[in-house]
Every structure is written in structure tokens, then in C-alpha cells.
Design goal:
tRNA_psdUridine_synth_TruB, tRNA processing, 10-stranded mixed β-sheet, about 35% helix, tRNA pseudouridine(55) synthase, alpha+beta, about 475 residues, Alpha-Beta Plaits, globular, 14 strands
């Protein structure tokens, strides 16, 4: 990067566990604002502000009047997850929208034998299943149902609403859901079981908190609606109606579930619309705390205790992983688990895959870990993806890494940047076992029709070589 050029562009950072994407941006601004690397960028922004007319300056809110390094992200990452979070700085923020629709690669750990209302290990237990006969071969066979394009049902704990009312409330009241639950088409271009953990060989586990029976009824009734809708077996009205005598208990269950659901939603990082801010919150040093477009802001009238909460509200949003010393919530060796790697299109729910895989196997399953290892051409462990921990080591450590990543981005032409958003990946065609069998059968028929070559003097009888066709060779490789 030239000495006088502005530090702007696109890079990625490895988001830590338990932190929101918005908090990562705030932390980056905290380090970037006073740095030498971004001083020219801030100076340029100040110069532009000076050229603004009086009317433009008056229209700015107090938060907007404060000049900070402009940062945005190219798609949020769940606090429960770690991995690639794409950040745009300065003019690089204009390219972030392109990353929202690109493919992503995830690695997740699935624990079998139980289901939770949030589809992950931090929710409440809804049901348990028999996992004693679950094998790696069974799981790999079940994964065939999730390859290629299909309609995916979103996680139902997120309180999908119809006509402004959560699905759980329809179920609790014994009323039919007014229309089908909306699904979306997703495309899984890669799906592979990379590690298999036999019972007793891993530290992954179910949550210890179990939902009350009335609450389970609410959740199961909505799950049944979704299952029947996908199977096309039962009407929405039949599936959504609960037994009248349990309705009173469901009132309490709904309240409990709503409380748990709100806690779950707080773990899901969403952009927060900008709103007029009151007095600027001050740090211990007296400097104005960095703000960002879309960041969580303090409101008028908050006291110092509330301000402290707001400052740290994007951290510790997920409970820590279980300690090896913590007793297991089962007797014996417990259930198996599996690590699965997938490359998917935008809008894919990894939680739903884990839950649906357990339903297909009949034993239940939940997501225990999640890592986004790639988004576009930004990959963990490469020069364009720095470690979050580098920020605490000082500018002398993180600045050269960010500068190198920004150089990699800025040295690309328009076509190169488009390639960075969606790199060309050789995709193997997803085929069913029936299609593969038919293709092999057809190739065998072709080979049988070929005339048998006459042995040459150098090639004794009994060692006649038949040349395989290219497609047969490719099939053997697959």
C-alpha cells in the first residue's frame, strides 16, 4: 500500500465464540480510531465534513457527527459460532452487499439422541431418542437426503409469525395455523461427514435443562405441523389443534417458552436500525465511545450502570462449552457425535440440518459447535483473514496483517473482486445411487459390445487389455 493511500477495502476476521458480529465491529473501531494506519482515512472524512453545508451538519444526529472508521460486515455470524466474518472499511463497505448471497462453508458438530427447542446445545430438552444403534454408515446414508437443492424449513424456535402472531401461540390456543409455514430453496453443493465420535470418546453433550411437559406439547405441536406439511400427510388444522384439557397448562408453557425464546434470539446477531442518540457515552478516559452505522446505541436517560451493560451487551451471548469435569447428562457412554462439513447457498440454516438429520434417523439431534471456515474466497488461516486476538497485541501486530489483506483486495480488478465474492469451485454433480447404477450399467453394456482386441506377439493371450471409457474412469474416482 502506498504511503499516502487510504486504508480501505475488504478483509475478514475470525469471530470469537459468544460474541455478536456488531461487537466485533465495535472492538475493531476501538483499535482502529486512534491508529496510525487509519489516520489518513479519518482525516479525509473530516475534510469532507468541513465541505458540508450548514443544513447538512444540522441534520446529523450527535452520533453521526462523531467521526469514526467506517466499518460494516458482509453477513452476520451467530454468537454460538466462530469463524470468517467479512468486514468492509471505508469504500470497502460498498462491496459488502455482494457477499450476502455468496456460498459459505461450515463445519458443525452434531450430537445425537436428543432434540432442543433451539436446535442447539443451549436450548431446553424437548425429547430424547434411542441412539444405541446409530452408526456412521446410517448417518452417511441419511445425509444423502440433504445434498443438492431442496426446500428447507427454518428453525421454528425463532417464533415464525403469521398475521403478527407466533406459531406457538396458535398451537397454544388450539387454533389452526392460517397458512403453510414458508420454506426456502437451498442448495448444498458439498456435504461430508469428516469425523465420527463413538460413544464415550467426546465431550459434547445435551443441555441439562429440560422443558416442562406443557412446554414440550407446545413445541412438539408446531414441529408436527412442519413435519406434516413437508410430508403432505395431514391438514394444517388437524396438526395445529391441541387437546382442550391441556390449554390451561399451555398458557404457562407459552410464557416460559417466550422467555427462553427471547434469550435465544439475543444470541442471534441482527442489524439494529439507527435511531437518534442522546448524549454520547464516555469511556473511562473521557473519550467518546466509537459508534458505527447499525451499532447498538445507548438511549436517552440511561444511567451509568445501564451504559456499562450496553457497552458489553454484544459479549458472552452464549454459555461456555461444557467442562470435561462436568457430569454427563446420561448413564453409560452416551450418544455418538459427528463432525460435518458443508458448502451451502445463502439463507441455509445449519441448525435445521442438524435437527432434521436427527428426525430422519429417529433419534433426535442438535448442533453442538459451528465454524464458518469460508465465505467467498475469504478462508480461515489465510492472509485475508486475521485472528481477532491480534487486536489485543497492539497496532504493530494487527496493522501489517490488515494492510496486507487490504492490499490483496485493492490489487484486484473488477473481475477479480467478483471472483473473490464467489470463487469458482469445481462442483461434483450430485447423483442418486439409482442414477449411478444406471450409468454404470450403460457403460458395461458399451464395453460388452466392443470387439475383443486380437492379442499381439508382445501381448500374450489371457492378458488382453480393454481400454476403459473416460466416464467409467471418472466413476471409479468418484
Amino acid at each position: 500500500m502506498a504511503q499516502n493511500s487510504l486504508a480501505e477495502g475488504v478483509f475478514a476476521i475470525n469471530k470469537p465464540y459468544g460474541m455478536s458480529s456488531a461487537q466485533v465491529i465495535r472492538d475493531c473501531q476501538h483499535h482502529f480510531n486512534p491508529s496510525k494506519l487509519f489516520a489518513p482515512l479519518l482525516a479525509a472524512d473530516r475534510a469532507l465534513r468541513e465541505k458540508e453545508g450548514k443544513y447538512q451538519k444540522q441534520r446529523r444526529t450527535h452520533a453521526k457527527r462523531d467521526i469514526n472508521v467506517k466499518i460494516g460486515h458482509g453477513g452476520t455470524l451467530d454468537p454460538l459460532a466462530t469463524g470468517v466474518l467479512i468486514l468492509g472499511v471505508g469504500k470497502g463497505t460498498k462491496a459488502l452487499h455482494d457477499f450476502l448471497g455468496c456460498t459459505k462453508t461450515y463445519e458443525t458438530v452434531v450430537v445425537f439422541g436428543a432434540s432442543t427447542d433451539t436446535y442447539d446445545r443451549v436450548g431446553k430438552l424437548i425429547k430424547k431418542g434411542d441412539y444405541s444403534n446409530i452408526t456412521r454408515e446410517q448417518v452417511e446414508e441419511a445425509l444423502n437426503s440433504f445434498r443438492g437443492k431442496f426446500q428447507q424449513m427454518p428453525p421454528l424456535y425463532s417464533a415464525l409469525k403469521m398475521n403478527g402472531k407466533p406459531l406457538y401461540e396458535y398451537a397454544r390456543e388450539g387454533k389452526p395455523i392460517p397458512r403453510e409455514i414458508e420454506t426456502r430453496e437451498v442448495d448444498v453443493t458439498e456435504l461430508e461427514l469428516t469425523e465420527w465420535y463413538e460413544p464415550g470418546t467426546h465431550n459434547h453433550r445435551w443441555p441439562t435443562e429440560e422443558a416442562e411437559q406443557a412446554e414440550k406439547n407446545v413445541v412438539k405441536s408446531v414441529w408436527q405441523v412442519a413435519k406434516n406439511q413437508q410430508d403432505g400427510t395431514t391438514s394444517t388444522e388437524e396438526a395445529a389443534t391441541l387437546i382442550p384439557e391441556v390449554v390451561e397448562k399451555e398458557v404457562k408453557a407459552l410464557a416460559n417458552h417466550e422467555s427462553n425464546k427471547r434469550a435465544a434470539e439475543e444470541r442471534v446477531d441482527e442489524l439494529v436500525s439507527e435511531e437518534p442518540a442522546g448524549k454520547k457515552r464516555k469511556t473511562e478516559t473521557g473519550a467518546a465511545e466509537p459508534m458505527m452505522s447499525g451499532a447498538l446505541k445507548d438511549k436517552k436517560g440511561k444511567d451509568k450502570k445501564q451504559d456499562k451493560y450496553a457497552k458489553n451487551r454484544g459479549m458472552d451471548l452464549a454459555p461456555p462449552p461444557p467442562s470435561p469435569d462436568t457430569p454427563f447428562p446420561w448413564e453409560g457412554k452416551g450418544p455418538p457425535a459427528a463432525k460435518i462439513r458443508m458448502t451451502v447457498t445463502s439463507g441455509f440454516y445449519v441448525r435445521s440440518l442438524c435437527h432434521d438429520l436427527g428426525e430422519k434417523l429417529g433419534c433426535g439431534a442438535m448442533m453442538a459447535e459451528l465454524v464458518r471456515s469460508r465465505q467467498g474466497e475469504f478462508v480461515l488461516g489465510t492472509d485475508n483473514c486475521m485472528e481477532y486476538s491480534d487486536l489485543a497485541l497492539g497496532e504493530e501486530v494487527w496493522a501489517p496483517k490488515i494492510q496486507k489483506a487490504l492490499d490483496l483486495w485493492n490489487n484486484k480488478d473488477k473481475a477479480g473482486k467478483a471472483q473473490a465474492v464467489e470463487p469458482v469451485v469445481k462442483k461434483e454433480e450430485v447423483k442418486t445411487e439409482e442414477v449411478k447404477a444406471e450409468e454404470i450399467k450403460a457403460e458395461d453394456a458399451k464395453i460388452e459390445k466392443q470387439p475383443t482386441p486380437t492379442p499381439t506377439p508382445e501381448q500374450p493371450a489371457g492378458e488382453v487389455k480393454v481400454e476403459e471409457s473416460a466416464s467409467v474412469k471418472d466413476e471409479a474416482k468418484a
